[in-house]
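Subject: Predicted fold for Spermidine/putrescine transport system permease protein, 288 residues

User T.R. writes:
Posting the sequence so we have a shared reference for the thread.
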Amino acid sequence: MEKLKSKRKMISVYATVGPITLWLLFLVAIPLIYVVVMSFCSLDKYYNVTFNFTLANYKRLFDANYVIIYGRSLLIAFSTTLICILVGYPFTFFIARKAGKRKNLLYMLVIIPFWTNSLIRIYGWRTFLGTSGWLNTILQFLHITKEPLELLFKQGTTVLGMVYCLFPFMVIPLYSAIEKLDNNLLEASADLGAKKSATFFEVILPLTVSGIFSGSLMVFIPTLGYFFVSDILGGGNSDVIGNLVERQFQSGNNWPLGSALSIILIVITLLLVKLYQRIGGDMESLGV
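User M.O. replies:
I've generated the structure tokens; pasting them so everyone works from the same file.
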């Protein structure tokens, strides 16, 4: 009887875990293994992939032109993350602590952009910022400028597009951290005579730093791979690592090198997540 019960339990466990395991195996593990293997492959003179394993692809990652793009990618990612923090923190604090009945409405307005494809929204920005776009039309109509401004195909425009796409990813973890603030601590700080600035830096900021860091990860990492933003708004003048990967798989037809670049992105992601764990971050806030 006990054996029968144990078999039933095992069957129920397999029935529950089995589909998820197969899903992760076929859609995560096998593709990742394929990319790792591909990164060590070679190309013949006809650009066909051959399984002659080599480290040449990883050596090419240190090419001077690629290093420049790495540095630019990190600068764009850092700028995007910093702007999202500076704009997102007071915005989220207002929603979580001051909005009252409007809290749900304002939070929903942050979520709504997810309902529309980001590629379409970025094309909207390209139309808005173009020489014949709405912004230049308004500026000329108001006689603020005589000629259309060249706003596209600059690094600053790429950062603007990144902030626009990734801003909700900063707000969501910040909202979770700020909403959990204990009002008793804030009242105690005020009762003890602390100024608002002191309360913020000594009480509020330390208690919400996990939200800042998790939001920073959720912004910083995708920025390195959002190649379509730099393609549409940067015009090739502000490439990120994602652009290198995309070109190797598309126009370059160099899958091994593209795979090696992809592995670098994965390594950066794992290092940042590990750093987040080391400082005591909650993996649930990252959706892990």
